[in-house]
Hints:
With 128 residues, the chain is of the alpha+beta class. It has helices spanning 13-21, 23-28, 106-127, and strands spanning 2-9, 43-46, 51-59, 63-69, 79-88, 91-99.
Amino acid sequence: MSIHQQATISADPRRVYQVLADAEALSALSGMGGKVAWTAGEEFAAFDGNVTGRQIELVPGARIVQAWRFPGWEPGRYSLVTFTLVAVDGGTLLAVDQHGEPDDWHDHIAANWPTFYLTPLTEYFAAA
């Protein structure tokens, strides 16, 4: 299965990238902690360890690709998450694509992209 969601964020792509790539800063938007990883291959943790994974590709201001998982998934099971940032009039179009999540997690994950990513990022940059 796969998930696709998007939102327009009122900041330029480089600013959105900086928060999105920084698991610690992103988690803080929801009042949680995280562990940042700035290099492809490094491990990150977000939302008090509820999402963990590895940075696959980091293209500043344009794209982040991560292999990530929830602690409850079977060992070795990861999904691929791609964040694509495109400059648009008024800010950044942020597209999120996730592939390979377990079928029984699909609805939970799809419902929570806005809760933990899209809405907090939108609100953060609207207030800035």
